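Reopening: Gas vesicle protein still failing for me.
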Amino acid sequence: MSMAGRMPEPYGQGSGANLADILERVLDKGIVIAGDIRINLLDIELLTIKLRLIVASVDKAKEMGIDWWEDDPALSSRARRNELSRENAELRERLARLESLEAAVADREREEEDRA
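Support: Ran it again with your exact input. Result attached.
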């Protein structure tokens, strides 16, 4: 008996196409995997971990209303720019308030010096 007869057959076109079909179907339809892990000691809940996993294409996720990655500055340069613009506007507003407060204090000090 030869070793070639015992070797498994290489993966053919059919199995690759099946995997591609399955992956396409999962991404098109989406799949949800959910589970909870709870750790109790003497009927006292110490830890609860809720796991939720959604596997879907970007288009399917958007269709379901899931688009958190678009607003996450760590994942989206547009979101990062928006966050920096918002922060910049807040800092400019705070600076303007501080400058107006400083001017009011300076005016009050001048008035007190004029009275003395």
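The longest strand covers residues 44-55. If you still see a failure, please send the error message rather than a screenshot.
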